[in-house]
Each structure stands twice: as C-alpha cells, then as structure tokens.
Amino acid sequence: MKSLNELAREAHATAIVNGWYEVEVSLPDMVALTCSEACEALGHYRHRRDDLIPEELADIIIRVLDWCAYQGIDIELAIINKMATNRERPYRHGNLRC
C-alpha cells in the first residue's frame, strides 16, 4: 500500500499533467477547490445520492494531498502530530456539537 506522501506526489504529478499548475496555485485557490468538493458531497447527500459521496470525499483528500506535495508538506508527519495533539485535548474541545 502506498503511503500518504507517495499518494500526495502521485496526485500532484497527475494535477500537473492535467494542467492545474500552468499558473501559480495559492492557498486560497486550494481551499476554494476543496470546499467545492465538500459542497458537491453535501449536494449528493441532500439529493439522496449516497453512492456519489465517497467520490467527492476522495476528491477532497486528493486536493489536499496535491497541495501538500506542491508545498513540500510531510502530510504523514502532520497527521501523526495532529492526532497526538487531539488525544490530549479535553472532552468536547471547543464545546462543539460535532
């Protein structure tokens, strides 16, 4: 199985080949594109197209992995560190419902 960093490099290579980096891509660009994928997943949920939700969730992850490779971010290490931080947080940190 490929590591997250390997998948990130592959996602980025595919994005380059498909023309997504002919101009510089900014963090706001990536966030907007990622949000659009999340909105597509929500649309499928609202229209009871649960079969299409996994593809949109995959698109979200692919967008993020692409950005990580583009920026040289070690996403595996970032996730490991963040999960360690989350384990130390108090119950219902921020008092949010979900």
Explain what this protein looks like in three dimensions.
With 98 residues, the chain is an all-alpha fold. The chain has one domain: Helix Hairpins, CATH 1.10.287. It has four helices and no strands. The chain has helices at 4-17, 27-46, 53-71, 75-87. Helix 1 packs across helix 3 (53-71) and helix 2 (27-46) runs antiparallel to helix 3 (53-71). The longest helix has 20 residues, at 27-46. The chain is globular and about 45 Å long. The two termini are 31 Å apart. The model has no long low-confidence stretch (mean pLDDT 96).
Provide a concise account of the structure shown.
The protein has helices at residues 4-17, 27-46, 53-71, 75-87.
List the helices and strands and how they pair.
Layout: H1 4-17, H2 27-46, H3 53-71, H4 75-87
Helix pairs in contact: 1-3, 2-3
| CATH fold assignment | Helix Hairpins
> Secondary-structure element sequence?
HHHH
Protein structure class: mainly alpha
Q: What can be said about the biggest beta sheet?
A: none
User: Counting H and I runs of at least 4 residues, what is the number of helices?
Assistant: 4
Q: How many E-type strands? A: 0
Classified by CATH, the class is: Mainly Alpha
Helical content class: 55-70%
Total domains:
1
Shape category = globular
Subunit arrangement of the protein: single chain
Question: DSSP strand (E) fraction?
Answer: under 5%
Mean pLDDT: 96
Q: Tell me the radius of gyration.
A: 16 Å
Query: In angstroms, what separates the terminal alpha carbons?
Result: 31 Å
Name given to the CATH architecture: Orthogonal Bundle
pLDDT < 50 stretches: none
